[in-house]
């Protein structure tokens, strides 16, 4: 590897377990390469620019290798590779007009060229320029991935979960945070890309929910057993989703998308629920109790006589409840409302005989 001025390290790779001899202006030393051939030598003094370091290696059972001479300086090889890779990325994925990430990568490459051609550039400056190009390439990769999904969605093409995950992985790779704008590492570009991807995800989720709503509404056997208001809720919210999807969500703000998604999820959840089943044992005039049975058990119940609430409670572990009331007269109307988590509310009525 190159020997950098201002350091004391000489590293490289030889034959596994080879004896590596390093000749520097300060001393001649021998170190042992490890099982992978890697070696590391630390000089007693710091290297300065233009000094010469010579390395030879002798593996077990072999002759000494030809010497390798290295001139101490700044190692720009990684920067040169980054510039090459950055230009290739721009060539492989051109955008018209250029995206924000394209422009940032071009600026980073231009800065890298300046540092590369500066004979007085320090290793720190070289490393910083290299890192900026790599980060700009990562941002371009993320933006290109999100842009591709947006274009597919706009054209009504299917998007796979793998494509969405790939874009998410590329965004996650970018440095900085996106939660708190006041945080020192807040990255606005990363936040913007995440917002765009979140909208793509929301539109795809809405498509799935609208498709599911269609299936439910086309199941006549199912919907005829459901309350009209529950069915109407699915119809109404699905129509909102249909309107949004006319242009595949292109003109709809993310907040509106999420609102409709939440409503449609709730409507579909409700229509899948069963009613609380309630039965009232026949009541005759003169009776002073009302016997009720529910399914599921331990349902919440409210009892009304002639429109007035007279009692409330829960059915027991068998689903039974007996409510004591004033003596009932023929013709009085009894109503019981029942509710239970995970079930649709229900009510039944009867008349005292």
Number of strands: 13
- Could you spell the SSE succession in H and E letters? EEEEEEHHHHHHHHEEEEEEE
Number of helix segments? 8
Anisotropy-based shape: elongated
Cα distance spanning the termini: 101 Å
State mean pLDDT (0 to 100 scale): 95
Binned strand content: 15-25%
Category from helices, strands and their pairing: alpha+beta
Portion of residues within helices = 40-55%
Ordered list of secondary-structure elements with their pairings:
Layout: E1 9-13, E2 19-23, E3 28-32, E4 38-42, E5 52-58, E6 68-71, H1 77-92, H2 100-116, H3 123-154, H4 161-172, H5 188-217, H6 220-223, H7 228-244, H8 254-272, E7 277-280, E8 289-295, E9 300-305, E10 308-314, E11 320-324, E12 333-339, E13 346-351
Antiparallel strand pairs: 1-4, 2-3, 2-5, 5-6, 7-8, 8-11, 9-10, 9-12, 12-13
Q: TL;DR?
A:
Helices cover 42% and strands 21% of the residues. It is an alpha+beta fold. The strands form four sheets. The chain has a four-stranded antiparallel β-sheet, with no helix packed on it. It has a four-stranded antiparallel β-sheet with strand order 10-9-12-13, with no helix packed on it. Strands 7-8-11 form a three-stranded antiparallel β-sheet, with no helix packed on it.
Walkthrough of the structure:
The protein has about 350 residues and is of the alpha+beta class. The protein has eight helices and 13 strands. α3 runs antiparallel to α4, α3 runs parallel beside α5 and α5 packs across α7. The longest helix is centred in the middle third of the chain and has 32 residues. The radius of gyration is 37 Å and the shape is elongated. The model has no long low-confidence stretch (mean pLDDT about 95).
């Amino acid at each position: 590897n190159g020997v950098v001025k201002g350091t004391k390290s000489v590293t490289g790779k030889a034959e596994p377990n080879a004896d590596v001899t390093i000749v520097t202006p300060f001393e001649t030393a021998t170190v042992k390469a490890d099982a992978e051939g890697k070696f590391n030598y630390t000089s007693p003094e710091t290297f300065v620019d233009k000094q010469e370091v010579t390395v030879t290696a002798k593996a077990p059972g072999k002759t000494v290798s030809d010497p390798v001479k290295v001139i101490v300086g700044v190692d720009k090889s990684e920067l040169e590779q980054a510039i090459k890779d950055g230009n290739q990325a721009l060539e492989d994925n051109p955008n018209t007009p250029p995206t924000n990430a394209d422009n940032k990568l071009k600026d980073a490459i231009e800065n890298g060229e300046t540092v590369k051609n500066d004979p007085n550039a320090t290793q720190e400056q070289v490393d910083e320029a290299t890192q900026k190009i790599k980060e700009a390439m990562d941002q371009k990769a993320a933006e290109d991935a999100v842009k591709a999904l947006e274009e597919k969605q706009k054209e009504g093409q299917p998007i796979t979960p793998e494509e969405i995950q790939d874009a998410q992985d590329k965004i996650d790779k970018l440095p900085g945070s996106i939660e708190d704008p006041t945080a020192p590492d807040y990255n606005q570009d990363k936040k913007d890309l995440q917002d765009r991807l979140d909208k793509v995800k929301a539109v795809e989720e809405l498509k799935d929910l609208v498709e599911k709503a269609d299936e439910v509404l086309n199941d006549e056997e199912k919907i005829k057993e459901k309350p009209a208001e529950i069915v109407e809720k699915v119809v109404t919210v699905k129509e909102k989703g249909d309107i949004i999807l006319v242009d595949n969500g292109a003109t709809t703000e993310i907040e509106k998308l999420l609102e409709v998604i939440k409503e449609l999820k709730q409507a579909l959840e409700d229509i899948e629920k069963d009613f609380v089943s309630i039965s009232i044992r026949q009541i005759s005039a003169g009776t002073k109790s009302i016997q009720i049975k529910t399914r599921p058990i331990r349902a919440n119940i409210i009892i009304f006589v002639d429109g007035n609430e007279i009692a409330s409670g829960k059915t027991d572990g068998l689903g039974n409840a007996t409510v004591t009331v004033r003596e009932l007269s023929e013709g009085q109307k009894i109503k019981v409302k029942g509710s239970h988590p995970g079930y649709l509310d229900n009510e039944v009525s009867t008349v005292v005989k």
